Amino acid sequence: MNRQPDVADSSQTTRLDGRLSERLTGFAYRLGWKLICRVPEPWARWVFTKAADVAWRRQGPKVQVLEANLRHVLSYSDASPDVDGKELRALSRAALRSYARYWLEVFRLPVIPVARIVSGMHVNPAGEAALFANLKTGRGVVLALPHMGNFEQAGAWVVARGAGSFTTVAERLRPESVYEAFVRFREGLGMEVLPLTGGHSPFGILAQRLRAGRLVCLVSDRDLKETGVEVEMFGQQARIAATAALAVQTGAALMPVATWFEGQDWGAHIYEEIPVPEAGARAEKIVAMSQQLARVFEAAIAEHPADWHMLQRVFTADLDPARLPASRQAEP
């Protein structure tokens, strides 16, 4: 008689499958950093583009989330709830190709000459001047970015331009070997990397760096710890990181930044500082500044929607109610 698997068997199988998946993921990332740097760039670019197209055709869960996010962008930009399906599909394909380029460049960034990183970066001069003027006077700066373009390359650029180094926060990926590989990669570019979870809260260390006149760079268009701020973006409620709290706490300059791809080069815009409001309670100031930050992100994403690599849910209406804060769930 065949024995039917019980719950314990099923649970053990799930754990084994998960461990195998993690090992394979870790192997793939390590192979990427070792292999992609050694093959001709045109060949690697072709492979990554084809991989993006395969993912796009398969319409997996992540692609569906991406298209849901892009649907909000198109609906807002066209001022219509009706979005053309062909336009959306074409945009999602371009976004996946852009995302594939991001990963290709992440794997190749260690071998891209610094001179190329600097010469290929097109930044608005006024924003660059304002950023370094603050740092020169000993005032800390928080650069808040959306998941656009290649922010790793932008980090290498700002270090090469004279920032020296900066501090950022990384989501603890699984398996641990992948997270450690990303930390080594970013530290090699001149970044100080703090773990989002699994250690002391990074907020205190970030505040220390800012009070010391240092630079902090944070990707801020998604609420990773479920402690973010609800804002309006693209006509929808969305949750973004409470990055503005650092500026309120320390007096550092909060400067939004957007990055994108320009042909074979890179583009970036460093926006004017979002000042801390003079009146209001601390929480009110954070909400007001976060809404201004969301407006900047909104404009930048609308201008370069194909370079917004948001494959996670960010709009409140699309979130699982179980992930919302208790106070939000209690609302009628």
Write the layout of secondary structure elements.
Blueprint (H helix, E strand, L loop, with lengths): L6 H29 L5 H18 L2 H17 L7 H24 L5 H6 L1 E3 L1 H12 L4 E5 L5 H13 L2 E5 L5 H13 L2 E5 L6 H10 L3 E5 L9 E5 L2 E5 L3 H7 L2 E10 L2 E6 L11 H22 L22 H4 L3
Parallel strand pairs: 1-9, 2-5, 2-8, 3-4
Antiparallel strand pairs: 6-7, 8-9
What does this structure look like?
This protein has helices at 7-35, 41-58, 61-77, 85-108, 114-119, 125-136, 151-163, 176-188, 202-211, 244-250, 282-303, 326-329; strands at residues 121-123, 141-145, 166-170, 191-195, 215-219, 229-233, 236-240, 253-262, 265-270. It contains twelve helices and nine strands. It has 332 residues and is of the alpha/beta class. The termini are far apart. The radius of gyration is 21 Å and the shape is globular. Helix 1 (7-35) runs parallel beside helix 8 (176-188), helix 2 runs antiparallel to helix 4 (85-108) and helix 3 (61-77) crosses helix 4. 53% of the residues lie in helices and 15% in strands. Helix 8 (176-188) links the parallel strand 3 and strand 4. The longest helix is centred in the N-terminal third of the chain and has 29 residues, at 7-35.
Q: What is this entry, summarized?
A:
The protein is an alpha/beta fold and 332 residues long. 53% of the residues lie in helices and 15% in strands. The protein contains 12 helices and 9 strands.
What tags apply to this protein structure?
332 residues; alpha/beta; 5-stranded mixed sheet; two-stranded parallel sheet; 9 strands; 53% helix; 15% strand; disordered N terminus; disordered C terminus
